[in-house]
Every structure is written in structure tokens, then in C-alpha cells.
Fold each of these.
Amino acid sequence: MSEAAKEFWNGVRAELPLLIGVFPFGMIYGAVALNAGLSPGASQLMSSIVFAGSSQFVTAQLVHDAAPALVIIVTIAVVNLRHMLYSASLAPYLHDLSLRWKALLSYLLTDEAYAPTIIKYERDGIGPFSHWFLLGAGFSLWFNWQVSTALGIFLGAAIPKEWPLDFALPLTFIAMIVPILKNRPMIASALSAGLVALLAFSLPYKLGIILAALTGILVGIILESRQSPKGAQ
């Protein structure tokens, strides 16, 4: 097996534990999208093209609530701002890649793909084929998301409401976040964002998500700016 293939499958293996939590979430999205009024084709295409679970859920809910287009666009933009941070974090490790590779990996860059990748890069450093690790992690998640979405669309209302499938993704995110909370700014950002998300849960148009994201970012920036140059990263 070539080094590229080894790195690819290492990425797939690192992603497997996270796929367990993502799969039921994809099924829920498929059912929610149909209930929101989206066609089966549009629901599946959103998973294939947009490929952003949280944004897809927000979009489906806002479409169901007949929210203004501007609210939908702004909400999705803020929810996805974290991907800019992921990109900035991985940029030093991937800056030598060609534009085609960068475009492909940026499409596959998600929360679940970022977490194991940055842990590996920070632990092992970068090699000639390290980007194949991110490709493996990202592609396995993409494939999992397409299959789970299709199954959710197919089953639709047949999924029993008493099944606590929606609890799987929060557990997945907790499993991703905890290993990378290495300093006070990170911990404070996570806790403050979580607290605000709970307190602002009842706000219309999912505006609590925007408020929580902005709060976490602001807290992290303030605390990191107060650190000494020696301790800051």
C-alpha cells in the first residue's frame, strides 16, 4: 500500500467513531427537510452540495417558519464562520498544496473532519502525504452524510419520534471538543457559548445560535489578548 493510501485510511479510521453519532443526525435531517417542505431531490442535493449539517438544519427550520431570505442568509453565514477558523488553523500545514487540493479539502472540511486532523498534525507534524489523512476523514464523513440523508428521506415520518436520535450529535461534538480544550481561552469560549445557547434557546429564527457563536468568539479573543506573548498562540 502506498503512503498516500495509508494516510487516507488512517483518516477514515480516525473518523469512524464520529460517524456513529453523525449517521442518526443525517437521518433526522432528511426527515426534517421533508417536513419543512423541501422536495426529496432538494433535500439530498443540499447534503451533497452544501454539506454542512448545522446550516442545513437551520435552513430547513427557517424555510418551515417562512423566515425572510436575509435572515436565512445571515444566520447561515454566522453559523459557518467557524469554518474560517478551521481553515486558518490548518493553513500552515497545507499551504504548499496545489489550488485543486485546497479546493477539494476546503469542501470536505467540517467539524468532524477538522478535529482528528488537527490533533494528528499537531502531534505528528506534516509529511508529503499528510493531506491524504484529511481527505480520508472528510470523504468518509461526506459518504456517511449522503447515505444517512437518503435513508432519512426514504423513511421520513416512519422514524419513531420517541427514538432519541437527536441526542447523538451533541455527544459527538462533546467528544470532538473536549480533547482540544487545552487552555483557559478555549475552555472559557466553549463554556460561554454553551451557556448563551441554553439561555437564548427560545429566541426566534434560531438567533440564539448566532448570539452563542459570537459570544464564544468574543470571549476567546479577549482572553487570548490578555495572555502574555509567551503563552499566547
Amino acid sequence: MAADKPHYHGHRARLRAKFMERGAGALADYELLELYLFNSIPRKDTKPLAKELIDKFGSFAEVITADPEELVKHKGVSEKIVADLKMLQAAAGRLSKIQLLDKPILSSWSALMDYCRAEMQFEAKEQFRVLFLDKKNRLIEDEILGRGTVDRAPVYPREVIKRALDLSATALILAHNHPSGDPTPSQSDIDMTQKIINAGKTMGIVVHDHIIIGRNDIVSFKTLGLI
């Protein structure tokens, strides 16, 4: 007599069906992660690991954006699983970026916010990004020009403007994250932004905004009257 199939085989089919019939919104975070882990762990019940990772990192989004070194420390998380999770993160970023391409960013503000969240919301260390725009305010390039600690990323205004000139950009949107969760601008954020604005003026480059991404909110310098 053939051996009985592992109990999780039927569960996997039911969870896939639930996802296909009712969508991701019908699944708890651990269920969505469990479903994704089916591809990484084909012959094992993935529910316990999914629940453990959600408990440790906080949410589905925080698991896939977690530091690889922190992920692999967790029992049961292989380098393959880490690579799969990072590919999912990269795919989410690419999908968000597509919404910005070939469109004036200033008229696609919600798409810009979604993209910034996808790329930076759960980063454990501060990073400073610059979105370089052409004369029609379309995205030319998005680059990380500063990586740092949990509360500071070094930024050099001259390097920002030099890169803008290299790309023939005429406008910029600055963005960085606050891993602490509080998106309130610091005095150093304000001072650094002003230095970039001043440096850009001499070259005919406009800074449209500086966006700070926290865990649950986003702050715009323009909205605050700081630009």
C-alpha cells in the first residue's frame, strides 16, 4: 500500500485555492508568506517557519525586506530562502518603478510614494536616494548616493549635482528613510537639503522635494513649507 501523503499536501492545495479565488487580501501575513515559501521548501510544512518569521520581523513586508544576515540566522532559513525572498523584494520594487516610467513624476505622486515605500520603508539602515528627472519631469534614473547607519547616511551635495550633470537632469527629488520610524526632518536633514538646493541653482537644477520615509508615514519637505 502506498504511503499516505504528508498532511500538508492537502493544506497547500487549499491555501493556493483560497489565494486564487479570494486574492491576497483574504490571507493573513503568515499565510501569504507560507504560500510563497512553498516554492522554496517543496517537501516540508512551511506554516511554522512562516509564523516564526512574522513573529520575529513583524509583517510580510518586513520579512522580505529584512537584512539577509538577520534572516539566515533564523533556524530553518537557508541561503536559497533568503535569495528567494530578496528576489520577491526586487520584483516588488521593479513593479512600483514601472508606474513611474515615461510619466511626469509630479503628476504621478501616489505612484512615487508607493515606489519609495517599496524600496525604503523597512530598511534597517539609512539610505539616501536621488531621483533624477528630465525637463519634462520624467524619471531618468534613481540612485542610492549615500548609505549609513541607523540614523545617518553621508551625503555630499557636490556629488549629487555632479551626477545630475552627468545624466543631463534638470530636476531632482531627494528621498531618504528614517529607520527609527519617525519621519520628522532633523536639522541636519534641513541643512543638507538647503545645500543641495543652493548648489543646484548655480547649475539650473531644481529640487522639487525631499521625501522622508518612516515606518508608517511619509513626510514631504514641500508640504511642510521647507522647500
Amino acid sequence: MISPESGLKAVQCVDLVRDFGEGPARTTVLHGLNLDIAFGERLFLVGPSGCGKTTLISLMAGLLIPTSGSVALLGTDLASLAGDRLVSFRSRHIGFVFQQFNLIPALTATENVAVPLLLQGVGYREAQTRAAQMLERLEMGKHLHKQPVQMSGGQQQRVAVARSLVHDPQVLICDEPTASLDAQAGQLVMELLQEVAASPSRAVIVVTHDNRILPFATRVVHLSDGRIVPDGHSSS
């Protein structure tokens, strides 16, 4: 685990450019973006649809490759990793909360949460124990053996949060974590994220359109047309 006292940033994006398409259809989604995210931050990315938020977090997670520029995670340039090395790095250091939960329908809550540990080679029994403990921290102890179809949207989101945290990642990325939830369930998920995920040795990055949860941020970054907008003023 990288110590915050090391002086390294949790995430560092330098002159980040990302294009899609070729020839006349080529579109630039991110335009030379620079962004540092420190340990201990809960940074919220906001902006209109199509402004580049999802592309940015996909680059931070190593799911996309920059057209130019660089992304360093915990001091490691993601471009220096490839194949199994990149997969291993992501599985150890990144937790991801997906907008649509992405739970495996045939697995129970405990089994879903245990998946990241099993992928790291943790034994089945230990993985199940640690998964159950994380679910209990998120007040899901009564639902350990339920499959996703047997749970509400808010309960499924808590399972997704537990899965993202069970391997103790230093970077947690949440893509619209409250988009599928009503106001009460969304508030509860954010309170749980604040309680369980907030840590001086972890950075939490949240993409959201939900202005109701902005008070949970320590910093809000506004994007417009693939650029960071000072003070949230649109460039359009």
C-alpha cells in the first residue's frame, strides 16, 4: 500500500487527450486535461452528458488508453502496464462501483462480494468470511444469502459498494452511484460510502448528475466539452 506521506498523488492526469474514431469521424473527447487527486479526497466529477466524465474515469481505471498524455495511479504510469500486469494492478488497487450494479445474477450477495478476493487468489473460505464482514458493515447481514433478484435497488447498490471495497483498494471510482435510487436510498448509500470508504489512504472519485449528494464531496470538479471548467462556469 502506498502511504500518503510518500508525496505521491493517488491519481495524476497530465495533458490527457482522448480521441475516438478515425479520419473525418475522429472526435476529441478530452482536450489536454490536467488533474491531480490526493489521498483522502472525495472528488466529484460533474457536468452535462457527453462532457467526458465517463471517458476520464475509464482512463483512470486503465480501461481505456490515452491518445496522448498520461495517467499515473499511485505513482505508476498505467501506460507502463499491459495485459496481465495491468489486470493485476487494477484488481489490487482499484475498486469500481458501477451505475447498473453489475452483480452476477446466479450468485448470492456474499459470493458477489467475494469475487475480487478470489481473483486475487484468496482462498474460498477466507474470501467468503471477509465478504460477509464487509456486507455486515454495510448493514446487509440479513441478506448474505440472497441473490440480486431478491433484493431492492438500494440493497443491490450496497452489495456493489461492498464488492468495490472488500479488497481495500486505494482508489475507489463510483459511476453515478445514486442514479438508480430514490432520494432516501441514495442518501443512505452516500452516508455509507462516506463512513466506510473515506480514508486518509484512499481517494474516492464519484461521477454524478445528482446535485443532492454534492455535500459529500471534499472537492467538486466541473467538466464541459472535455475540459475542466474553473468555478463550474460552462464554456458554451
Amino acid sequence: MATPPQSHDASASRDSGGVQDTDPPRIAVYVEAYSPPLVIPVADYPSSDDHLPQLMSALVTRAHSLAQEQGGRLPLAVFQELIANLVHASFAGAVITILDHGNTVRVSDRGPGIPDKEAALRPGFTSADARAKRFIRGVGAGLSMVRETLAGLDGTLELEDNLGRGTVVTARVRSEPITALAHTSVPAYNLSERQLKTLLLAVELAPVGPTRIAQELGVSTSTAYRDFVSLEEAGFLTSGHTGHRSVTDAGLAYLDVVL
């Protein structure tokens, strides 16, 4: 488990008051568009401030890991700051939503909200009281740091009102598409290390499904499925009537070039 984040304190008009023990945080992962999300409640939800650092660390570690499994590029620091920001809302109605193959994280709550969202994004503006400062910096640095981090990745940060009450903070970066390499005798692409391993396993195990690939590589089935789709789009895999994949001639030619 990662070290509990000693971070952020959004410049927000939120009340800190400890953990809400009746409304445990949830993580929602949208693996496929237009499909219901995978909802992951937090186990052993604490009922006192004494356990709040463990809760924050667990949420950061789990959410960041799930985003990475989807292929996301968002840095760990972004998760640390946005989840620490929930201290201001006492974690009321907290939901961490992962979208766009892990490249978008949306953190929502049912706290008192942020009336002045522009001020919340400027260093030095904070609503942290003495209780909140037990767990966060309390100097109004977090959201401005996240915005600067995302700007360096050509990403964005958005603050919105939640439905009824509360706040929604969305951090987003663009996914990295498979891009063409220099001209060779066959079409070539920049595959990730995991995609290359998937292609090699498909040669060895074909026809093969995402479940077997997931077992071999130690990743989630959804991650293996997404790599299958990317490799099919590149023309390196073909799907049979059972949904299992085999390597195409283009895939074999690619392996000959890169290996």
C-alpha cells in the first residue's frame, strides 16, 4: 500500500468534519462505452478520523491501479490530490469514476460544494480548518498543482457543481494512440510492451481469448480485451466466430521486423 498522501486541500468552501460512516466511498470503472460500470466499494470503511489516512491511501492506490490497468496516463499525484480534496466534504457521497481507458478520473462528493471555483484553482485559497490540516497541507496548493501537472500533459482540469449539492472535479488527459514508425518493408507501429507480449502469446496460443492472455500477463480481462481491439485495428490480429484471436500475416511480418 502506498504511503498515505500528505497532500492537497482544495481552495474550497467545504466543511471538514471527519469521515461519514454511513456513506462509504465507491470506485466506478467504465470499461466499455455504453455499458454499466464496474462498481467497487471500499472494504473496511473507517468510522473515525484515526483511520482516515488509511482510507485515503487505499483509495489512491486502488483507483490509480485500476486506471493503469486500463492503459491510463494520469500520474499518481493527480489521484493523491483529488482524493485528499474529499477531506473538505468529509467524504460524503464520494465516488471516484474512471473513464476513457483510465485517462479521465472524475471525483465527486455530496459536500457543501465550492462556490468560487476560480479561486479554488489559485494557490493560497483554502477552506481547510484545524481538523482538515491533520490530513492535508492546508495551504491551498492542491488543485493548482493538479492543473499545472495536467497542463504539462496537454490535459485539463474541470470543477463543476454536483447534482443537488457537492462538487465534481474531473482530470483528463488524451490517450496515446498507436502511431506509425519510420517506413520499413512492412507497416510498423509503436506497440506497448504489453501489446507486444500479447501478440507473441497469440502466436504461441492461437486461437486465444482475452481471459487466457490476462492470466498469462497478470492483467485484468478488460485490459487484455482492449489490447486485442487495438491489435485488430492495427491489422495484427483477426477474430474468429468464437471471439478468439489469431495472428495475421501482417502481425507475423511485424514481429519479424521488431524481433
